[in-house]
Write a structure and sequence with these properties.
The protein has 303 residues and is an alpha/beta fold. Helix content is 42%, strand content 16%. It has 14 helices and twelve strands. The chain has helices at 2-18, 30-33, 42-51, 63-72, 95-104, 118-121, 133-139, 151-158, 180-189, 203-206, 215-224, 239-245, 268-277, 286-301, and strands at 20-25, 38-40, 56-60, 77-79, 109-113, 126-128, 144-148, 164-167, 194-197, 211-212, 229-233, 250-253. The protein has a four-stranded parallel beta sheet with strand order 2-1-3-4, sandwiched between helices. A four-stranded parallel beta sheet has the order 6-5-7-8, sandwiched between helices. The longest helix has 17 residues, at 2-18. It starts with a helix and ends with a helix. Bound molecules: 1,3-dihydroxyacetonephosphate (13P) and iron/sulfur cluster. 1,3-dihydroxyacetonephosphate (13P) binds next to loops. It comes from Fontibacillus solani. InterPro entries: NadA, NadA_sf, Quinolinate_synth_type2. GO terms for molecular function: 4 iron, 4 sulfur cluster binding; metal ion binding; quinolinate synthetase A activity.
């Protein structure tokens, strides 16, 4: 506790010196969410990065999120506490594969989940996050959509649009691990609880949800629901905000495996250190960034 207090004081000082803001995804460790200027889902954090006046953005999340911030705010310094915080799903699609698919479907538009590399975004018509995927797809002027990289979110979106999705086979290791059996067992132990689930989970698990939505949508739903007990089908870090919003409610994570190890690579100590050394910085080659920016900016403009 004493060490954390010292670290926090140092952080406060450094933040002023560097004119920095700290953005933290809801899947980050509690000790990081506690000191963040903004906590949010992928969408809110991208918006914040695009609109901030600060000179330095510390992105506490995974690498693709830092890249998106750098693409949207190319003149700012974007730091990440540990650059090894990657996203295996983002790495499941490569440029060659996507180009081949585009050649096979020349009339299709490419809609890319923000969980992807800058190079993939540079090959994309428009990006989306889990909170606006259906709205983005329906805004696109094409009947056929190439969808990368999350097959589970793709399947969910397909049920909510008339457009035809050509779905890439990627997935999130963490959310995809949750099974129907896990949820059945949890429901049996907590019969009064509502099951809330992220669309990165498998279709058959998503189908069991009393509520399906992005991280922010789940948080909003639990805050406003009259239920007192919830089974949560998304990453464990959301417990920080869920409990803060509703101290009188009970949250059971659907399994103890709903932990994204990549998100947890960042910690408070590394956060302070990155502001001290101004390293590691996110770098995106300008030619790639310029092409990727259009797809992110289009997303931010969808009403
Ligand atoms: P959201 O923040 O859009 O809910 O995305 C979840 C996720 O897996 C981020 O890596
Ligand atoms: Fe990637 Fe899943 Fe971790 Fe999000 S939770 S960063 S999608 S592995």
């Amino acid at each position: 506790a004493e060490m954390n207090r010292e670290l926090k004081e140092k952080l406060f000082q450094l933040k002023k010196e560097r004119n920095a803001i700290i953005l933290a995804h809801y899947y980050q460790r509690d000790e990081i969410q506690e000191v963040a200027d903004f906590r949010g889902d992928s969408f809110l954090l991208a918006q914040k990065a695009a609109s901030t006046d600060a000179e330095t953005i510390v992105f506490c999340g995974v690498h693709f999120m830092g890249e998106s911030a750098k693409i949207l705010a190319p003149n700012k310094t974007v730091l990440i506490p540990d650059e090894r915080a990657g996203c295996p799903m983002a790495d499941m699609v490569n440029v060659d594969g996507l180009r081949k698919l585009k050649a096979q479907h020349p009339n299709a538009k490419v809609v890319t989940y923000i969980n992807s590399s800058a190079e993939i975004k540079a090959e994309t018509d428009i990006c989306c996050t889990s909170s606006n995927a259906v709205k983005v797809i329906n805004s696109v002027d094409a009947d056929e959509i190439i969808w990368v990289p999350d097959k589970n979110l793709g399947h969910y979106v397909q049920q909510h649009t008339d457009k035809k999705l050509i779905i890439w086979e990627g997935y999130c290791n963490t959310h995809d691990m949750l099974t129907v059996k896990d949820v059945v067992e949890m429901k049996a132990s907590h019969p009064g609880a509502e099951f809330v689930v992220h669309p990165e989970c498998r279709p058959e698990v998503v189908a069991m949800g009393d509520f399906v939505g992005s991280t922010t949508a789940i948080l909003e739903y639990c805050k406003n629901s009259s239920a007192k007990e919830f089974i949560v089908g998304t990453e464990d870090g959301t417990g920080y905000q869920l409990r803060k919003d509703s101290p009188d409610k009970t949250f059971h994570f659907a399994t103890k495996f709903l932990v994204c190890p990549n998100m947890k690579v960042n910690n408070l100590k590394k956060l302070v250190k990155c502001l001290e050394t101004m390293q590691p910085q996110i770098y995106v080659p300008p030619a790639v960034a310029d092409k990727a920016r259009a797809s992110l900016e289009r997303m931010l403009q969808v009403k």
